[in-house]
Structure formats: C-alpha cells, structure tokens
Amino acid sequence: MTLAIKGAEVIALDRAHGSKPFTADILIDGDRISSMGDGLDLSGARQVINGAGKLVIPGLVNAHMHSPEALYKGRYDNMPLEIWMLYAYPILGAQTLPPRLVYLRTALCAIESLKTGTTCVTDDVYESPSQTPEQLDAVFQAYDDVGLRATISGHVVDRPFLDTIPFTREFVDPALAAEADALGAADKDAWLAHCQGAFARLHGRSGRLNFMVAPSAPQRCTVELMQDAMALADAHDAPFHTHILETKVQAVTGQEFYGETLIAYMYRHGLLKPRTTIAHSIWVTDADIEMMGDVGCSIAHNVISNQKLGAGVAPVQRLLKAGVNVGLGSDGVSTSDTTRMFAVMHAAGLIHNVQTPDTDFWLSAEQVLRAATMGGAAAACLGDETGTIEVGKKADMLLLDLASVPFTPRNDLINHLVYCEMGSSITHAIVNGEIMAEDGKCLRVNEAELLAELREEMPAFLHAHQTTETLNRQFEAAFWKIHQKANASDIGLQRLGAEPRWPA
C-alpha cells in the first residue's frame, strides 16, 4: 500500500454510487485503487492524506487535444477553421521542429492540464511535413516527465492539401495550386511503418502512455490508409481517432467528394466501430446519428474551439440518446487557447441551452461531468482503466478543497464542479497512484525552468513563422470564397482583402 485518503467526500461515478456523494477512505496500492469504504485500516500506507473538508472526484479526461498548437496560443482570432488552418497548419513553408521544441510545447500543455485537473489526455499530434520518431519520442517524454496519462498519435494526411477541401480548383490561382500540389502528401506505407514502430517502442510506457492511430479525416486520407490504420488499431486494441463534420465546408465536402455524408462514407467502408472516436460531429444528419449509435462509436465534443471558429454546436443530447459515447475535449491550443477542462465543462453545460427552448435537449451538469471523465476514458479505449473512482481501476483522481470560494456556499456539488470551479480548489492531482501535483505545483518537473526555456526559443520560431504566414496569406482570399460558398452567405466576401488579424 503506497497512499491513502482518509475521510473525504467522494463522487465516484461508479456502478455502486453513481453521482451521489458519500464519505469514505480510499486505499491505493501501487497504481490502482485497492479498497474504498468507511473505517479502513490505513496503518500500512506510506502517506495518508487528510480528506476532511475535501472532495475526491475522478481526474478529468481531455478527449481531444492538439498540443502542437501551443506555439500559437493567443495568436489568432475571428477566423473560421479553413482560414485559420492556413496559418496554424500551413500549406507552404512549414517548419520542421527540433525534438527539444516539441518537448517544450508538449510540457507546456501537460503542466497546464495537470494543474487544472486533467489527469488523462488524448493528444492528436501532427508534424509538418511528417512526424519523425525523434519528435514522437519527445512528446512521450514530456508527458512521462510531467506525470499525465496520455494517448498520443501520429496524425497523418495522405491526400494533397488542396484535394481535401471542396472548390479549391475553382478559386485558388492555378500557379499557386501547382506550387501546393508539388509538395505531395504523406506516404501510406511509411506512415504505417512509423506507427508500427511507435507501438513496439512506446505503447504502454510507464503504465500511463499509449500510442493511437489518427488518420486526419475521411476527406484528407485515402480509404486504403484509413482501412489499414483501422486494422492496426484493432491489432493493438487502440483508438482510431479522426475528425468529421467540424464545419459547414466539411458538410458540403461529403456530397462533393463522395455523393454521401462523410459518416455514411465511413460506415460503408467499415470505419465506424466502437474504437472510432470522431472529433466534432457537428453537422451530422439524423441518418448519421443512427449509424453512429448502431456501432457505439465515440465523439469528442470540443465546445470552446467550435465556438471560437464559428463552426457550430454538436447535437450532443441526440447523440447520447442514440447510443453514442460522448467525451469532452479542449481541441487545439490555438483554437480554444486553453487546455483547462473545467472551462470546457462550463461551456458545454451552457451552450446547448441557447440552441433550443426544448429543455429535453439541454445537458445536465451530471451528463457534463460524466462526459469529462467516463466519456473521455471510453473514447481513449481506457474505460476499464480510468474515468471513475472504483476498486481495481487506476488511481487517477483529484482532491478539491470544499472550503474554497467556488464551493461556498455549498449547494449541489456537481453543479459547483461544472459551473463554479475552474481548478483553483484542487489540492492534489493523483495519476497512476502518484501525487503528480499538489497545491498548484507540479512535483516532477521544474515548471519555471521549462517555461523560461520555451520563452527563449519563441522569438526565433516566430521570426520564421512570420515568413510562413506571408507565404500562406496568398491562399486567404480564395479560402474566404470557399467558406462563403459553402455557407451560402456573403460573410466571406466581406472579409476579402482584410488586414491580417494577428500580431506582427
């Protein structure tokens, strides 16, 4: 026995207790919860945390994040996805980052996540032009050092960029299109070999870290790559993580490219399974929802990012009622500008209320909390390991001070968690049975040194990135026209020729 918590209030979300608070001692043996109940013998524990006046909940799970965007946090505003991608995922002039900078940007996300209550993340990592083993190793090392549980991808696109968005040939200058086309796309066999190496080298590291396959989207990847990726995910019991129907442009894409919705395309090719996690799922049809529910796949509801990009709001209650598992995600650290899952919960609990006056389609605070814990764990294929406080599961949990401002005066604890708390009440973040953060401080890394090192690296990075932004600005007028055509309004035309909306 290594750790114990004495006399805390607990919201376990397990089968026995559900969301009802109860008082208990918790014993942790190694990385797992070994016992939970009243009056347990704690004498064998190496450390006992006094739980009086504290609340224990499962650690929050971020079901969808892109840590590479940390370098652009706070940089862009008032851009829909297809315009924003020109700068955060540039077509021309993308920098190949050294592993140390990859490590630092990942550590930044991991530190903020852990200190604000996230114990488990699904990090979908894209590198331009393709991910190297050294870059992937750096991501794993950062999560290992900070102390999170993480499922980490090698994100891939194997179709030429301009062939992933409709109407590009109509609006992009042919000479500029030829320059983009000359860059080609990822090689399927090389990417599969990279994934196989990652599974062999990194999967299961430290009992906390796993690898997953992440074909970017059905319009960005060939069906052959996606099917081979699914076979690899099946072989390793790993998530198959992708993006579908984030924007109205993507809703148009299915019909333009395949003559059917993107969900129907996935279903027809055997790519919708319980292990499939779909980031976004905003523009789904009734038939799409039925197909998704039939197979029991997952979505990651990225409510803050979707609002910032003006993408829309996923029909979460309808998806839940159909049998789709729902997790919550922060999405990219440039489109949400945060990894804080308490902020995501707060937004998810509110946004649906303004979509319809029919309260049957609003989310309850309990549904939001379950999505931010159990739902995210299931989406990462970790539902048997984490997401609840339960004997036999991994010891991933938070302790919060009930005497803090967010819980005063005390009413319904779950409402307080979703609508009042932002992470300031956390006293301990426990991951895999180890206290990884205490009283706002990460215990395994020197946060100040890492942040200082990243700040030192940023001027050189941004100097080069400004050149990249200039190169890709050439596409912006055409992409506003694509946005306008897909959305059938004049909003895009109003922005043509506008000045850049980010710092020099």
Report on the structure:
The chain is an alpha/beta fold and 504 residues long. Residues 489-504 have low confidence and may be disordered. It has helices spanning 81-88, 99-115, 133-146, 168-171, 174-181, 188-202, 223-236, 248-258, 262-268, 286-295, 303-308, 316-322, 341-351, 365-379, 413-420, 447-472, 476-487, 491-495; strands spanning 3-10, 22-29, 32-37, 47-50, 54-58, 60-66, 118-123, 149-156, 209-215, 240-244, 276-280, 298-301, 325-328, 331-332, 397-401, 426-431, 434-438, 441-442. Strands 1, 2, 3, 4, 5, 15, 16, 17 and 18 form a nine-stranded mixed β-sheet that branches. Strands 9-8-7-6-14 form a five-stranded parallel β-sheet, sandwiched between helices. Strands 10-11-12-13 form a four-stranded parallel β-sheet. It is globular.
